[in-house]
Amino acid sequence: MSATNDMTVGSPDLQRDQPKSRVERKREERIERILRVASIVLAEHGYHNTSLEMIADRLDLTKASLYHYYDSKDSLFEACLERVALKSIQTLNEISRSEGSATERLRALIVGHLDILISSDRELARLYVQQLDWPESMLDSIRRWRSEHRAPFDRVIEEGISTGEFSPRDDLVARHCMFGAMNYLPVWFRSRGKDEDRRVIDSVAEELVAMFAG
């Protein structure tokens, strides 16, 4: 009997191979739109001044329709943060484990982080890095995601220090300055076209990497 015939109809392997139905695709598209719009409204008004009614109105949905996907404001906002956290953590982990020197990988990590902040997921990323007044119920998740987000940087920096490639005057201060500078970029950055944006990102990355050269 072949391996295919051995599979039961409900097996996980077979289910993964099956294409998503039109209903499933539409649901995923709507959830993606809800998360993006909710993040924009949250970034504009802050956690305490944002309501589900405001988000539903921006989406042109009824509040009842929004409750079909998320049963509370906290569950919706936590989903917003989780989306960008997991996506950025995966990207940064891949960069940290790529080929190249510690200097090259740290520069690539900084560029990758800045790209997320100002290009691919601007609204979501700002929520992720900003110190907003989040409710107690969300703090453990946020702390965990931020710790996992920092880990790829820490691995590369520690590798560079151990091999002598990096010799910062104060390792801890340099790391705090690096993250502070990166996360402040959305406050002052204004896009002036693809080429100029790339020049700014590369320039910031070079300056931050230089802090670890000693």
From TrEMBL:
Q: Which InterPro entries match?
A: Homeodomain-like_sf, HTH-type_TetR-like_transc_reg, HTH_TetR, KstR2_TetR_C, Tet_transcr_reg_TetR-rel_C_sf
Protein keywords? DNA-binding
Q: Where is this region: Disordered?
A: 1-25
> Per the database entry, where does the chain bind DNA?
51-70
Q: Pfam families of this UniProt entry?
A: TetR_C_24, TetR_N
Q: What domain of life is recorded for the organism?
A: Bacteria
Q: Could you tell me what this protein is called?
A: TetR/AcrR family transcriptional regulator
Give the HTH tetR-type domain ranges: 28-88
Annotated GO MF terms: DNA-binding transcription factor activity; transcription cis-regulatory region binding
Q: Ranges of Basic and acidic residues compositional bias?
A: 14-25
